[in-house]
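A further point concerns the way the authors explain their paired sequence and structure data. An entry of this sort, consisting of the sequence and the corresponding backbone structure tokens, reads as follows:
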Amino acid sequence: MKKILLATALCATLIHAADVLPVEKRTFEQSKYIPDISLVMDASYVSRSVSDDAIAHLEVPGVVHGLLGSHAHGEHAHSTYNAENGFNLNYAELVLSSSVDPFFTMDGIFHFSPNGVAIEELYFTSTALGNGLRAKGGKFNSNFGYLNEQHHHAWDFADMPLVYEAFLGMHGINETGLQIQWTAPTSTYLMFGAEVLQGDNEQMFGNSTIDLTAINAAADPAQAEYEKAPSMFVGYIKTSFDIEDTTILAGLSYAQGSSRIDHTEDDENKHAFSGDSKLYGADLVIKHSFDSYSSLKWQSEYLYRDMDGVQYANNVSDVFVSPDMAKKQAGLYSQLIYAYDRSWRTGIRYDAFIQNDVEKDGVTVAQPSGLEKYSVMAEYSTSEFARFRLQYDHNNAMFDEAGQRQSIDSVILQANISIGAHGAHSF
């Protein structure tokens, strides 16, 4: 009883003390939390062996079309980075980041491009859950795999690896939703994460109704109705440890969700896909540091996707067809980056699809082999705020509409400049 009375008296004393404190001492002072602001510019000069008109019609057979260059779906225009021969102003990225209060931080990343303005990321992150827990909510890059979380200006090459862009599109898994992560209290880094996402990725996932009558007026619109959102789930395990001057980071990732891939507004060959998809990923990064600025980094990722559903299109007789379709496809990239000093880096990258199994109504559709790409780059940085990169690509994975392989040689000169306070990039 005495303990209860003592505790009650202590609480009353604290409340009274808080009441008599000056207002400026009792309230949270938002003025102390001024956002960090930065602006990133990315521009490039491109010279390709294929014209801009031709490259927009190329595809990776059975995997994706419209992968390079500028292309349109109805009224919507899309451009990849380094889309056109000649000069490209790829984007300006405006970043705002600040603590909200003692419990949350907030980050906003806004993209300005010739196609308009977009909210790339806008999310809050908890800072006070404790016990190794962290929560994030809003729109953000998923922690699936290794590269997906990073922004374009943090990549080691001017373009995204072939398998990433083919499976997930230029922005990867960039969704609105909720993320929960737990870091285990172990001697080495071990993190488990789960994400529930809206499921709007137009390259592989999606949940919107597809208007099949845009393909054929006789089609039943109910065949590709919407899937209730949120319709995408992501989970992953990541670990990291050091062996003297070498750091090893490894991870396993999984994503699943509904798929609504809509190409009913294409100028030619209108088609659509409705079904379910699963994506598996494994990543490994090994970085050896020779000194503070010199290092050698080997980075590799493997992606495997399993898509099962129905494809809708017209056949040669303009009759609406809807065969069952199943795709089991896999690809990887592997790159080696050598940082000579604070200013100079060079690297090589190999991209390949190593499985491309496509079935329609149980019948295998033959696909070409040798879907590969080779890249080499050298870059010079005047400081951490300015980087200039020269890159050469040889792409053997693209085919034209007649089914003929088109080997593409590209030279890219990239300039990446930033100003303002910008948070450090993840390892």
Notes: The radius of gyration is 25 Å.
